[in-house]
């Protein structure tokens, strides 16, 4: 029998494990996620699994039916565009604030994040790429020094895993394209022209099929 998971929050641990399996396609779209099976595998209670699944539903990764059947989902095109547009609008404001203050100090940290993203993409680790995407964009947003902007942006974090997974499939992009998309944004940020950065950011979120 598996050992109980050791963590301050068992639902958080189960959530991360299931999220990784979904993002890395170990659990594919349409697959059923059975509470009892997961609970037995991880030696946790069904209520713990249920809490984790509820969070995954909020993130757009599973759908829970009235009879408590959970199914791995993929976001629709409209849902992807809606989430990406919201993030674009917030980040455009952040980028302009960052450039007004000077973005030089960001280039090194962002380059290091892209290096780690490249390694994660090479290892086909979608969950790690998603986390690094959040770290990359969050670094820019926080550098704007706008607390409310950062707070609003953070509310979108949860769904980005589902957005990236669904968007890659819809656009038939490879995971290896993710570091390239971020490098393109970083290169433009380094030039320092607000309009060019805003245009690249728009393409980054809303035209992911543009020529890399």
From TrEMBL:
InterPro entries: GntR_C, TF_FadR/GntR_C, Tscrpt_reg_HTH_GntR, WH-like_DNA-bd_sf, WH_DNA-bd_sf. It comes from the Bacteria. Gene3D superfamilies: GntR ligand-binding domain-like, Winged helix-like DNA-binding domain superfamily/Winged helix DNA-binding domain. Residues 8-75 form the HTH gntR-type domain. Keywords: DNA-binding, Transcription, Transcription regulation. It holds the Pfam family FCD. One of its GO terms (molecular function) is DNA-binding transcription factor activity. PROSITE patterns: HTH_GNTR. This is GntR family transcriptional regulator.
